[in-house]
Here is the input.
Amino acid sequence: MGDDDFDEVASSYSVSRLLATARDAIDAELGGAVWVEGEISGFKKGRNNHTYFDLIEKDDEDRVIAKVSVALWAGNRAKVNARFKDTGPIRMDEGVRVRIIGPLELWLPGGRLQLNMQDIDPNFTLELIDSERDRVLALLRAEGLIDRNHRCVVPTPPQRIGLVTAVGSAAEADFLKTLRDSGGAFDIVFVDAQMQGLGAERTVSAALRTLAAQRVDLIALVRGGGARTDLATFDHELIARTIAALDVPVFTGIGHEIDTSVADVVANQSHKTPTACAAAIADLQREVINRVEDAWIGIASSAQRLLERENTRLARRARHATTTVRSRLTVEQLRLDTAAERSTRGGLGALRHASARVDVLSARLTALDPARALARGWTITRTSTGTIVRGLADVAAGDTLVTQLVDGSVTSTVSATNRNEDL
Here is the structure.
């Protein structure tokens, strides 16, 4: 094709005219402001309170297939904020799906196509959040996972507590303060996790699995209040499945009093706030302590009753024993007195009888006293060896004899012996 051919086929434009023509075509086609649905990406705040982000569209494989730049000027931002207050607690943030309105404009100096955001439909985002929440719950119910973590037994008392939240957050401070103020003894194993925004579900899931491997008694997943878009992290299917798969009971304390997330539904126990979650854990420990104290009180009371009963029985037996012993002592004293009296009478009689016998024996002894016999003229003759001579057989002729007299002795020699034939 020659140069003449190009002149006939296409018109020649300057850059400004080309972009102006494109701008006019866009305006003619769209007719002004349009509603656009998409996911926020690259959200950032600029100078003078302006806000910029991209609105993207993804396919089923989570790949970006279209993108348009969006500018929210400071003048329109107040209107958008007022809309949030009127219709629902949502926040524009990374990963949030929104429906916004504004004109699509082509900025000639920069050559950039940009949607100038004028307003937002919060109900669109809230309905998406609710729809996603209902989808996840229905799927978990169909698979029988809703009550799985409910069946995990909570150790009593729980002492080693796993904590998942954002480091330095108010939720962390409130949770730990409540446990400290309870006076209980707890070992806290903390894992930091991103609590909102794009990819938060992955860090929360990873933190839960990490703590489950740390042999904790239970895991507390806590986060303070926030917009529905902030808390939508805890409606994510990944977090729900992670909780359902754990063999460790999970306690949640997420958001405000009115918030209930999918994580709350599948957890072993759900509590309205981080403080309430910590208080419930402290109550479990205190309940065990109270039961132990009540048991000791019961044991002490039973022991006291048993002791009093045994003291009463012992006192009764002591009184009975005292009475019995006294009676026995009285009887034995009477028997002893009687025996003593008999012994005394018998002893005196025996003494008198013995005394009489002694007197008789003494008289006999006196009568047999050799000195008395000698005084009456009797003598006692002994051999030279001292043997008493009682008969002829005791002496022989030539023996020397000593004869004892009353006043002395006579020594003689036997010249002859004569036997008395009459004997």
Q: What stands out?
A: The two ends are 208 Å apart (CA to CA).
